[in-house]
Amino acid sequence: MQILTPQVFWAQRHGEIFLRVELSDASDVDISLQGHNTLQFRAQGHGAKGDNQYEFRLEFLEPVKPEIHQKLTQRQVDIKIRKRDERWWERLTLREKKPLFLAPDFDRWLDESDAEMELQAKEEKINKISVESRVRKDPYIGLKKGYLFMYNLVQFLGFSWIFVNMTVRLFILGQDSFYDTFHTTADMMYFCQMMAVLEVVNPLLGLVKTGFFPAMIQVAGRNVILFVIFGCLDEMQNKAVVFFVFYLWSSIEIFRYPFYMLACIGTDWKLLTWLRYSLWIPLYPLGVVAEAVAVIQSLPIFDETRLFSVPLPSALGHSLSFSYTLQLYLVLMFLGLFVNFRHLYKQRQRRFRSRKRKVH
Predict the structure, then answer these.
(1) Which uninterrupted H or E stretch holds 44?
(2) What is the pLDDT of residue 37?
(3) What is the DSSP letter of 46?
(4) Do 260 and 284 contact (CB within 8 A), yes or no?
(5) Is 130 helix (H, G, I), strand (E, B) or coil?
(6) Which end of the chain is more exposed for a tag (fewer CB within 10 A), N or C?
(7) What is the set of active-site residues?
(8) Cα–Cα distance measured from residue 350 to residue 360, given in angstroms and rounded to the nearest whole number
(9) β-strands 310-311, 38-47: how paired?
(10) Model confidence at 359, in pLDDT bands (50, 70, 90)?
C-alpha cells in the first residue's frame, strides 16, 4: 500500500489555526507536534486516490501551543491548533513556497481586518455578558411589566370604546352625532384621562424610559380641555368641536396603547409599529388645532359667566376674567405642540434606525 498526501485546507485567526484534511472514513489517526512548530499527520482513509495511508508534515511559521484539538467526521478531519503568540501570520509555513497539497479554506477564510472585527465583536460580547452578570436583576421586573401591560390594556379598551361608539353614531346619525358626543362618551373619557395621570408618574418612578416633561405637557393639556373647557361649561358640551377633539384623541391612542402593551411582552408587530410612529404626524397637530378652537369658542363664555375669574380691588376693577389665562394657555399650547412634536419625531427616527440595524 502506497503512502499518499491528502488535500489540506487552512485558515487562521489571531490566536488559532484551522486545518481541514479531505479524508473520509478516517481511522488510525495520529496527529503529533514535533518541537514547537512542526505538525505530523498520519491516518488511514479514503482520499483522492481511494483507500490508502495518507500523511503530511507542516512546519509552521511560528511556534504553536502543544494542545491539538481534532474532530473526525465521515467526510474529513478537522484540526485546531492555538498559536503561542496571538498575532496575524503572513503565511502558514516557515518556507515561503507553500506545499502543493495546501490550499486556503475559503469557508473559514478571513482577511486580517475582518479577523480583527470578528475578534472585537467577540470581546464586546464577552464584556457585555460580564457586565450583565454583575448587574443585579430587578426582582420586581415581572410585577412592573404586568402593571404596565394592564395599564395599557385598560387604556386601549377605553379609547377603543370611545372610537367605536363615535364611529357607529356618525354612520347612523351623520352630523347630528356631533352635538351629543360629550353626553354619550364623556364618562369614559373622564376615566381614561384620569388614568393618564399615571403616565406622568411612571417616568418619575423609573417604570418607563419616556420623558417626564413631554408626558406632563400632553396629559395636562388634555385635562384642561376636558375638565375645564368641556366639563365646566354646559354651553360647550353641545358644540361640534367636542366630536373632533375626542375623535382625534382616540384615533391616536388606539394605536399607541397596544404598541406599548405588546412591548411589555417583547412583541413587535411591524404594521402596528409603523402606525404608532406615523399616524401621529398628521393627527397630533390636528388635535391641537381642534383644542385651540375649543379654547377660542370658550373665551366669550368665560367672560360672560365670570367663571374662575379672580377678584380684584375696587380701584382696579371687579375681577380678572379667566379668559386672559386661556389666551396665555393658547400660546403655551402651541409651544407644547412644538416640544412634543420634536420629542416624538426623535423617537420615531431612533425607532426606525434601530429596526434597520436589526435587519442588516
Answers:
(1) strand 38-47
(2) 87
(3) E
(4) no
(5) helix
(6) C
(7) 284, 291
(8) 16
(9) unpaired
(10) very low
pLDDT of residue 360: 41
Map grid coordinates 373619557 to a residue.
189
Per-residue exposure over 199-213, b if at least 16 CB sit within 10 Å of its own CB, e if not: bbebbeeeebeeeee
Rounded to the nearest integer, the mean pLDDT of the chain is 86
Q: Give Cα 309 to chain centroid, integer Å.
A: 48
Q: Residue 236 carries which DSSP code?
A: G
Contact (CB, 8 A) for 16 and 82: yes
Q: Which contiguous run of DSSP H or E holds residue 43? A: strand 38-47
Q: What is the DSSP letter of 60?
A: B
C-alpha cell at 199: 403616565
The pLDDT of residue 230 is above 80: yes
Task: Select the more confidently predicted residue: 37 or 355.
Answer: 37
Checking if the pLDDT of 254 tops 90, the result is: yes
Residue 169 CA: distances (Å) to CA of 124, 233, 248, 287, 347: 58, 24, 16, 20, 35
C-beta neighbour count of 75 within 10 angstroms: 12
Cβ count near 13 (within 10 Å): 21
What average pLDDT does the segment 175-200 reach?
Answer: 95
Pull the grid cell for residue 1. 500500500
What's the rounded mean pLDDT across residues 208-217? 82
Cβ neighbour number for residue 66 with a 10 Å cutoff: 11
Phi, psi of 54 (to 5 degrees): -120, 140
Q: pLDDT over 70 for what percent of the chain? A: 87
The residues facing 80 across adjacent strands are 18, 69
pLDDT at 4: 86
